[in-house]
Write a structure and sequence with these properties.
Elements (H helix, E strand, L loop, with lengths): L9 H13 L4 H8 L3 H18 L7 H29 L5 H6 L10 H8 L4 H6 L6
């Protein structure tokens, strides 16, 4: 059976990377002392050095919540659009061709005629040739 991966705590990683940054011992010596691969120590050291400037910045940094808010807003927008399309598809699943033609709402505020047809898998030109778009 394969060995289980070791999960190291952030405190342990900080301690090892701090020892590596101090340079009192080589990576191999630290690896044998902490029972961690030297490449892992080098990776943690690099991460610690890159994140040190963030620890000394003044004020609150808000780039992460701003990005999350933007992503959340776009995801909610996508969810709303997909829910609206799903509701429309449920309504249009009736088998009658004439009924399906009547379900096309040319003045729908958010779904174009092309999108109606794409959701149902119809060709865009099919409803135009058989349906008077002036009457809903």
């Amino acid at each position: 059976m394969a060995n289980k991966r070791k999960l190291h705590s952030p405190e342990f990683k900080a301690k090892v990377s701090l020892d590596a940054i101090q340079g009192m011992k080589t990576a191999s010596e630290l690896a044998s002392q902490y029972q961690v691969h030297p490449v892992q120590i080098s990776t943690w050291k690099k991460q610690a050095i890159e994140s040190l400037p963030e620890a000394f910045k003044r004020g609150k940094s808000t780039p992460q919540p701003a990005r999350e808010a933007a992503l959340t807003a776009s995801l909610y927008e996508e969810i709303g659009r997909l829910k609206m399309e799903l509701d429309w598809l449920k309504k249009s699943r009736l088998s009658s061709v004439e009924h399906r033609r009547r379900l096309i709402e040319p003045k729908h505020p958010k779904l174009s005629i092309g999108r109606h047809c794409a959701l149902r898998g119809d060709m865009r030109s099919a409803p135009n040739s058989r349906l008077d778009l002036a009457t809903p």
